[in-house]
Design a protein that fits this description.
The protein has about 375 residues and is an alpha/beta fold. The chain folds into 2 domains: about 120 residues, Immunoglobulin-like; about 250 residues, Zn-dependent exopeptidases (Aminopeptidase, 3-Layer(aba) Sandwich). The protein contains 10 helices and 14 strands.
Length: about 375
C-alpha cells in the first residue's frame, strides 16, 4: 500500500488506498466503538509517518499494520453508525496498480443493530493464534534458570501512543525489549522469550496465554505513555511501574489501565468478545490478592523502581497499581512498565536513542538479578 485518501461528496465519505496489485479484501463493520475493518492478504504498508492521524467526513482517523501472519489490517474509526455503500477495485488501466475505493454513508443506531452496516461483527474472521507463539522454542524447564517473558506492548495494527515527531510506542518498546532480551541471555542466568518478535499484533489474552504456556517465572510488559493536553504534555514525564490490583491506586492508574486494556479494540476486535470475561477470570483476580504472587510482584516493582532511578527520570508517583488485563496472571509475578511520555519532547528524544534503551535494559537486568538472588536465598536449605 503506497497511498491513502479520505474525501467527501454529498452524504458519502470515500476511503481509498493504492495497491501494487489487486487482492481479495474482507470488509466488515464493528460497534463499540464504530469501526470499519479492511483485511488484506500479504500487504506491505509503505506510507508516510503520521498517515491516518486525522480524517474527514464520517472517518475521524484510521490506522494500519500487520494483524496476523500474511494478513494486513486497516481500521477506520467512524464518527457515527455507518454502512458500506459500495466497495470496488479500480485498475490504473496499465495492469500495474489498483485502487480500493470504499464508500460509507451514515445510518441510525437501530439500522446498524439490524445488520444493515454492510457486514456486521458476526461476519468478522476469527482471531488467529499468532505464529510468534510457535517459534519461541522455550523448554518448560532448563535446570534452575528462570524464564523471563518480555512483553513489548502493542504492535502491528496497534501502534500504541503516538508521540512528538510521530514516534510510535510499539517501535520504542520493541527496541527496548530486544535490548533487554540480549542482555538477559548474556548473563547466562536466564531463559528469555518475547510475546512478539516482530511488528505484529498480539491480543492481550494471547500474551497471558503465552506466559502460561511457557511457564514463565516473571512477566514484564513494556509500554510508553502519552497525554493529549497541550498544557501538561511539556512538563509531565517519567517512568512508572504498575502492578495488578482489583482497585486502582488512584484515578490516573485507573485511566491508564483502561487505555491499555482497550488495545484489542484499537486493532479491530469485536468488543462483545472482549466483554465475555468469564467467572473463572474474575476469580483469578480475586485469588491473586491472596497469593504470594502479588507480594512477589510488589517486591520486584520496588527493586525495579530503585534500579531505574539510575537510568531514567521517574514520574511523580512511580509505583502504582490497577486492573491491567495483561497482568491477570496467577502463576507468575508481573509488572507493566510505562517507560516515559512520548508526548514530552525530552522523554521522546531520550527514548529514541539506542544508548538510553540500553541503559534502561541494564537497569531492568539489575533489578531481576536482585530479585532472583533474594528468592534463591529464601529457598536455599
Amino acid at each position: 500500500m503506497t497511498h491513502t485518501s479520505v474525501s467527501t461528496q454529498g452524504d458519502k465519505t470515500r476511503f481509498s488506498m493504492s495497491l501494487s496489485k489487486g487482492v481479495r479484501a474482507e470488509i466488515f463493520t464493528l460497534a463499540g466503538p464504530y469501526r470499519i475493518i479492511i483485511d488484506l492478504p500479504d500487504v506491505a504498508f509503505n506510507l508516510p509517518d503520521g498517515t491516518g492521524q486525522s480524517g474527514k467526513g464520517l472517518i475521524s482517523a484510521f490506522r494500519y499494520g500487520l494483524f496476523a501472519e500474511h494478513k494486513g489490517r486497516v481500521v477506520l474509526d467512524a464518527s457515527a453508525p455507518v454502512k458500506i455503500d459500495g466497495a470496488k477495485m479500480v485498475s490504473d488501466g496499465r495492469g500495474r496498480a489498483v485502487k480500493l475505493e470504499l464508500d460509507l454513508v451514515a445510518i441510525s443506531e437501530a439500522e446498524f443493530g439490524k445488520g444493515t452496516g454492510g457486514g456486521t461483527a458476526a461476519g468478522a474472521p476469527p482471531i488467529a493464534r499468532p505464529s510468534v507463539f510457535d517459534d519461541q522454542q522455550v523448554s518448560k524447564k532448563n535446570g534452575d534458570k528462570p524464564l523471563i517473558l518480555v512483553d513489548p506492548g502493542h504492535g502491528g495494527i496497534d501502534p500504541g501512543a503516538v508521540g512528538v515527531g510521530n514516534i510510535l510506542e510499539k517501535n520504542i518498546v520493541f527496541a527496548v525489549a530486544k535490548s533487554l532480551a540480549r542482555k538477559l541471555e548474556a548473563t547466562g542466568r536466564y531463559r528469555v522469550a518475547l510475546t512478539r518478535k516482530r511488528d505484529v499484533f498480539v491480543t492481550l489474552d494471547q500474551r497471558v496465554t503465552l506466559s502460561q504456556e511457557t511457564d514463565a517465572d516473571l512477566f514484564i510488559s513494556l509500554h510508553a505513555d502519552s497525554i493529549a493536553s497541550k498544557t501538561y504534555a511539556p512538563v509531565v514525564r517519567g517512568a512508572t511501574v504498575y502492578t495488578l490490583s482489583e482497585r486502582a491506586s488512584d484515578e490516573q492508574a485507573r485511566l491508564m489501565a483502561e487505555k491499555e486494556n482497550s488495545s484489542d479494540l484499537v486493532a479491530g476486535i469485536d468488543s462483545s468478545i472482549l466483554n465475555q470475561e468469564t467467572e473463572a477470570v474474575r476469580s483469578i483476580l480475586i485469588d491473586l490478592m491472596k497469593r504470594e504472587t502479588s507480594n512477589f510482584s510488589t517486591r520486584f516493582s520496588n527493586l525495579l523502581v530503585s534500579r531505574l532511578k539510575s537510568s531514567v527520570s521517574l514520574s511523580r508517583d512511580p509505583q502504582r497499581s490497577a486492573a491491567f488485563r495483561v497482568l491477570k496472571q496467577a502463576h507468575a509475578p508481573s509488572v507493566l512498565v510505562e517507560l516515559g511520555y512520548l508526548s514530552n519532547a525530552s522523554d521522546a528524544k531520550l527514548m529514541s536513542k539506542s544508548q538510553w534503551q540500553s541503559n534502561v535494559a541494564k537497569s531492568i537486568v539489575s533489578a531481576l538479578d536482585a530479585f532472583f538472588d533474594k528468592r534463591t536465598a529464601r529457598t536455599a536449605p
